[in-house]
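Hi everyone, sorry if this is the wrong subforum. Our group has a chain we'd like a structural model of before ordering constructs, and none of us has done structure prediction before. Sequence below.
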Amino acid sequence: MSEAIAALRAKRAAAVQRATELADERSACSYAANVQYDVEARQRLSEINSDLALYENELREIDAAIVAMQEVA
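Answer:
Right subforum, don't worry. Here is the predicted structure as tokens:
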């Protein structure tokens, strides 16, 4: 069971890392999308926001799985 928890923690760390990268990219695109009205930047910003929502949900799922596994152990 500890191997499974370790695997989930590694998966969580990877998701956190990717979410951080996306948040940084969002910051970079925000100016162009919202001030310069750059259509490509706006499209990428929408994609980033969708991806971030998915990662947030994935993190909640992983956290719930870790808690459930710890309760069983």
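For your construct planning: The mean pLDDT is 95. The CA atoms of residues 27 and 45 lie 9 Å apart.
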